[in-house]
Design a protein that fits this description.
Length: 140
């Protein structure tokens, strides 16, 4: 489940640039109930993109927005409460890794779902049922 963090250079602390993705990955596993499941945690990954400040916009103007985008199968975070829990956790994590004075309003979290069968790893397309079976098998 890829997590992409995009931030203007100088907004994330040096520690934040290194630790934000592991922290977001742990939060996703926790909210999803997958903490400790090797298969589940093994399919969470992502990238951190640090851009020149003049290349980040919001509302049509240059603004220091940090964006977190999570892409996951449509069985992941299946209800509004689960999605809200991840958004809250992700916002707190980003806030803890930004420089002093960065506004919470400039932290955006977006969750995108892949339709059933449109999630693939290693050349294999997984349905929701396939993923549930793999997570369940890894738990035993």
């Amino acid at each position: 489940m890829p997590i992409t963090v995009t931030a203007p250079r100088g907004i994330l602390t040096a520690r934040g640039e290194r630790e934000i993705l592991p922290a977001l990955s742990a939060a996703l596993a926790e909210v999803s109930g997958g903490t400790g499941n090797d298969f589940f945690t093994g399919i969470i990954g992502g990238t951190v993109h640090v851009l020149s400040p003049q290349d980040v916009y919001a509302g049509g103007v240059n603004r220091p927005v940090v964006m977190v985008e999570l892409k996951l199968p449509n069985i992941g975070l299946p209800d509004p409460a689960a999605r809200a829990a991840f958004i809250t956790a992700a916002t707190e994590i980003v806030a803890g890794f930004t420089t002093e004075g960065h506004r919470r309003e400039d932290i955006w979290v977006n969750i995108l779902n892949a339709p059933d069968g449109a999630w693939g790893i290693g050349g294999r397309a997984y349905t929701g049922a396939d993923l549930i079976a793999a997570v369940t098998a890894a738990a035993h």
